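Today's session is about reading a structure prediction critically. Students often jump straight to the picture, but the first step is always the sequence itself: look for stretches that repeat, for charged clusters, for runs of hydrophobic residues. Only then move on to the predicted structure, which in these notes is written as discrete structure tokens rather than atom positions. Here is the chain we will use throughout the hour.
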Amino acid sequence: MMVTKKGRRNMLIRQIREVIYDIGRPATAREILDNCVHMKNAPTMNQLCGMMRRRSEFIITDNIRTPTMTGMYGAHLYWVANT
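Below is the predicted structure for this chain, in token form.
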């Protein structure tokens, strides 16, 4: 039995939604990726951000800015829309 790319992507998005719900609050992409260690085929940072930016079920709730040694780091906080 062959798994299609679309089926694999939908399964990955469902797993990402569950990770966000498990965190229980809006989270950055790094926090989401750190909680995806249990997944067999966890996405890379670029894949995760691309999926969350293109899919309408993931909404950006806020933008945080954190100081680092080299300057300011900005990150979006993502949550799942009620669908």
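Discussion point for the tutorial: The chain has a mean pLDDT of 87.
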